[in-house]
Amino acid sequence: MSTPDKPQYRAWFESIRDPNERYPLDEIVYTDQSGGLLQVAHDLDELKKTSGEDWKERFKQRSHGNEWPYGSGVWGFKEWVLPQLDNDNVVSMYEGHTNLFWADRYGRQLGVPDLWLKLCGNSHTGSFKDLGMTVLVSMVKEMLAKGRDIPAVACASTGDTSAALSAYAAAAGIPAIVFLPRGKISVAQLIQPVANGAIVFALDTDFDGCMEIVKQVSQQDGVYLANSMNSLRVEGQKTVALEIMRQFEWEVPDWLVIPGGNLGNVSALGKGLDMLLEMGLIRRKPRICVAQAEAANPLYLAYKRDFEVFEPIAARKTLASAIQIGNPVSFEKAVAALRNYDGVVEQASEAELVEASAEADRTGLFNCPHTGVALAALKKLIRRGLVQSDDRVVVISTAHGLKFVDFKVDYHRMQLEGIVPENPNPPIELPADYDTVRSQMLREIDRRFGR
């Protein structure tokens, strides 16, 4: 009796405009010949030699295990990410496996009890960027092992990308360079690449200006580009979609709400969903909402014109600093994902995003401002009737709130410029006297909880 051929899992770079234009994954290339973005494509026929049910079981068995590198929330899906990478070159901190937080109390307040937050900030450097960076830095390590001359890996960043690159490059012993907009990121975000030994440049520009510099050093000086226009990043970030579905036992939620800046995340989740559908692990599509800050909303403006026109903008200052981007690199990929998943785009003002964050924090969460943008957008979808009371909704929380404590402290101190807080909760300063403290304590309990 003959036995089936052992699958030969393969992946390569492919133009999103012309699938016949291909490159090996260890080639230093970021765009196709027309300047369009690339994507990592997989030999689906080989992947389909394993049934959908067998893939589910394989992923389940690997989850949280200790067999290198499959215990990682990214590398547990290795055949769907970088199948040909030598395991010895994987650079991993066992990223992923972030929890789905059932926000039942906050969901009931909004009228959507089946509300969940995917807490991607519960990761090594505190954001979802770890998921893409483990893949990119691992490929760089493999290229170096093969003798490729790469002097350093570099990124432009509004904070989180630089933290992830610096940590993973440090673990691999690879030089890292980061370009940050001076004075436009939090202290917690700045200190991460500094502490990990990266070469840190704080430039007198915004993210888009930093991006132009990093493109130049990659083109002219051979430095490897680590921003999301490098589609290796997307391969790691797409595992958010795979992990959500596995955590729900492959039952598809009705909505995914995603903060959007450079738009690599929405294209990544769309790519993960595409593979799950193609491989038969899920049977229906969720809808997608991309949420943007009103101060940095080029995708929203394009959406209002049915994506017929896209115009980069000068992003204005926003508390959601990581998505303060006026010329998103992954626009084309994001639009494709939105069209494929019956998507919508919403925006949130500064007041809306801070109040949504504060409301959710009062129910036990601790949100970054970008998650506040997504929650504010969700509230608008509910008011518009697009999200129904019986829908299951997953909000992608992109970073840990501890990276943005200044934003929260200033809110509760009532010191946010242009914002009059609706729910401030500053500390109550009193003398250390029992009777005084007791009297104030009882008043506060009664005022806040009606007891």
Summarize the structure.
The protein is of the alpha/beta class and 451 residues long. It is built from 16 helices and 13 strands.
Mean model confidence by pLDDT: 94
What is the alpha-carbon Rg in Å?
Answer: 22 Å
The number of distinct β-strands equals: 13
Supply the CATH class of the domain at 100-126 and 233-412: Alpha Beta
Spatial separation of the terminal alpha carbons: 76 Å
Strand order of the largest sheet: 4-5-13-10-11-12
The low-pLDDT segments are none
Q: Which outline best applies? A: globular
Q: If you consult CATH, what is the topology of the domain at 100-126 and 233-412? A: Rossmann fold
Question: N-to-C SSE series?
Answer: EEEHHEHEHEHEHEHEHHEHEHHEHHEHH
CATH architecture of the domain at 100-126 and 233-412: 3-Layer(aba) Sandwich
Roughly what percent helix? 25-40%
Helices, by number, come to 16
Percentage of residues in DSSP E strands: 5-15%
Instruction: Assign the structural class, choosing from mainly alpha, mainly beta, alpha/beta, alpha+beta, or little secondary structure.
Output: alpha/beta
Largest sheet geometry:
6 strands, mixed
Supply the key terms.
451 residues; alpha/beta; Rossmann fold; 6-stranded mixed beta sheet; 4-stranded parallel beta sheet; 13 strands; 13% strand
Structure description:
The protein is of the alpha/beta class and 451 residues long. The protein has a domain at 100-126 and 233-412: 3-Layer(aba) Sandwich (Rossmann fold), CATH 3.40.50.1100. The chain is 39% helix and 13% strand. It has 16 helices and 13 strands. The protein has helices at 44-47, 52-62, 104-110, 129-145, 160-172, 187-195, 207-221, 231-237, 239-247, 264-278, 298-303, 331-340, 350-361, 369-384, 405-412, 434-449, and strands at 11-15, 22-23, 38-42, 100-102, 115-119, 153-156, 176-181, 199-203, 224-225, 255-259, 287-293, 344-348, 393-397. The strands form three sheets. The protein has a six-stranded mixed beta sheet with strand order 4-5-13-10-11-12. The chain is globular. 49% of the residues are buried. The mean pLDDT is 94.
